[in-house]
Amino acid sequence: MAANNKQKLKLLAIMRMLQDETDSERGLTMRDIIERLEAQGIEAERKSVYRDIETLREFGLDIATYQRSPVQYAIARRDFSISELMLMVDAVESSRFLTRRQCDALVRNIKLLASDRERALLDKRIHVAGRVKSKNDSVFRNVDAIHEALRERRKVSFLYFKLGPDRTRQIQHDGKPYVLTPVKVVYAGGFYYATMYSDSHEGFADYRIDRMHRIVVTDEPATRNELITRHAFDDAEYQNFGRFGGDPVNVVLDVAADKVDIVFDRFGDAVQMGAMGKDEDEARVQAFVTVRRSEQFFGWVAGLGGTVKIAEPCWLVEDYRAYLQGLIDQL
After folding, report:
1. Residue ranges of the WYL domain (predicted)?
2. Which end of the chain is less enclosed by CB atoms within 10 A, N or C?
3. Which residues of the chain are under the pLDDT cut of 50?
4. Rounded-to-integer distance, Cα 214 and Cα 222, Å
């Protein structure tokens, strides 16, 4: 490249080195900047670099001057802090619907928002327990297709599969495609779900988007009716075992007082707590929660080995006992 053309890149070169090599803790001196420019074949002298830094400030870059010996220049404030970038990386790493390849690509893009020093910190990833990665890389395409159908108010056609014991795809619905009206897309429990309306069943059903295959936005207009119009997102459907059971149930749990964190971790910090009756063990407390009756809820209680017990309603206690007896009978 001709020397004159390289000079035109000086402003961009300064911006790039400040973005890559500086942050709130580390800056570049004037000598550092000039040496890096010369290494790229760009001639520079102090006054022109000062002018370029001022131009970048006018452009909107938050370039700070650190009064050190010697003076240093740095981009002190970025769109995201290192802590925020770490949260993004770990959210991506722990997303079960992403393949390893998709995960690595997203992490690389997130790291572009950091300085070189911060990128090294991001490489030291926090361990997130239970990182299970999908082997299906179509989830983004499927989500895009459903959003397109929602936007264009059209139905979607897709095959739906479950995994067999040998990990092969078992196409449902007798191998025929579903043709349904998409209602909403929800992210819950590490997966994307699509709520669909079926004309033939006159009702709603949820489908895991990473289990959809050959999804197509059809030319058929989406169904519009009062049921769909009134259908609203319900948090309870996607938390507290909501995807696995029937109607919501108000439950009183008997919890070991020194283990209440288990309940807070599962149901959130807003759970109401109360003391047990006067004749009860002071080492235990009551927790008031809303769940959906399901084997998953019973399994969660059983797995805590008496730390958490179901106190009320009585009929749910009896259902739980029947669930436990059923497990014993299978031994």
Report:
1. 142-216
2. C
3. 1
4. 19
